[in-house]
Amino acid sequence: MAITQTGPQTAQDEAGGGFAAWYMIAVLLLFYIFSSIDRGVISMMVQPLERDLGLSDFQISLLQGPAFAIFYALCGLPMGWLLDRVSRRGLVSFGIVLWGAATCACGLAGSFVQLLIGRMGVGVGESVLTPAAHSMISERFPRRRLALAISVFTMGSVIGAGLALAFTGYVVHLVTHGPPIIVPVLGQLKSWQAVFLIVGAPPVLLAPLMFTIRDTRRRARAVAEPREKGEALAFYRQNWQVALGIPVAFGCTNIAANVMIAWGPTFLIRTFDWNAKVVGVRYGLVVVIAGAIGQLGGAAIVDWLYSRGVKDAHVRYHICGILFSAPLLAFSILSRNPAFFFVGQAVFYCLTYPYVGYAAAALQMFTPDRLRGLASAVFLALITLIGSLIGPPAVPLVAEHVLGDKTMLGPAMAICLLAAAAISVTIQLQVGKIMRAAPAAD
Hints:
Blueprint: H1 11-14, H2 19-40, H3 46-53, H4 57-64, H5 66-83, H6 88-107, H7 112-126, H8 129-140, H9 146-177, E1 181-183, E2 187-189, H10 191-206, H11 219-224, H12 231-243, H13 245-272, H14 276-307, H15 313-335, H16 338-351, H17 356-364, H18 372-402, H19 409-436
Antiparallel strand pairs: 1-2
């Protein structure tokens, strides 16, 4: 199989971008934080939702994973196609408003079906942001700094996930133990309703910020190089082992990540009888600190290795991290010791969780400029579908149907973590062979 590393760099690109490029990342990072908060906020509201709406663990898992992931993936592909053809700023702004409004709608839901529809809307809106960001960042930074640049943007997922845990836990605790919240027109709000409304409003209000950044798509080159019919299919046919192998491998890692985000807080609440505030602050703090260190440190290590000729640095680094962190995290869950649990969690969030930045960078290096939006959308669709469709539902299913006891949340989490890690490493070993055989970067 012939793999081509694409894209000659301009002199400006080789300089590593400038103020405008980093300002662009800052704006995109801000919205990625909000998207991660809106996506993950439901994980801290399992008990209030089950109490007020009579939902089961399995119904909650559908709201956490499939309801979001299916529509994120289905809409991500046409969004990626549009991103290569229309104004990326305008399309992203539309997506931001849509997911913020859908999150607010979840706060007005009175049934499982209404919540399901709201979560679907969040998936549709968020499907445009990351493909657009990957495409725009890849045009502004050289290959030798691409993993770091994309990882700075991707750090939004870590910050957002941590803030979602800490903020939601605090608000749920405050509303549950404080005076009722009365809002004009809406009346009295329950704790989970207030959370959805509070986190959904800011993206809608801040969406115009997208128009303060420049879209640097090289339109002249796009006109001079018209798309050949079936160009995308030809690209995937020629490079399928990397173009599909990378998202499938890291999608398996995303199963483990979704297991922890979806059920980690609930495991702590049920196992140690902690309240939502305590769990949110402690869990969120570990996610933000360990995840940020891993996001920037991992990307810097990958860029350093790649610049010294390690062509499979992106998967080699991840393999080492997951082989160490996944077993440690699984054993820390089974130990039922909170201190050991947070040690295992910190190692996992430092070495394994922050993978999207360098995984996306690896894919972008093999993708023609004109297909970057679509390739990023396919990448995100696959890792999201694999992680979200399997991760959250797998835990209650394993607990009830494999272990025979739906209360065995911890052992079920450990089984799912180790299985996902083993499959991810197996696929990455094959992808690494292909990457090492590729021609040297220009």
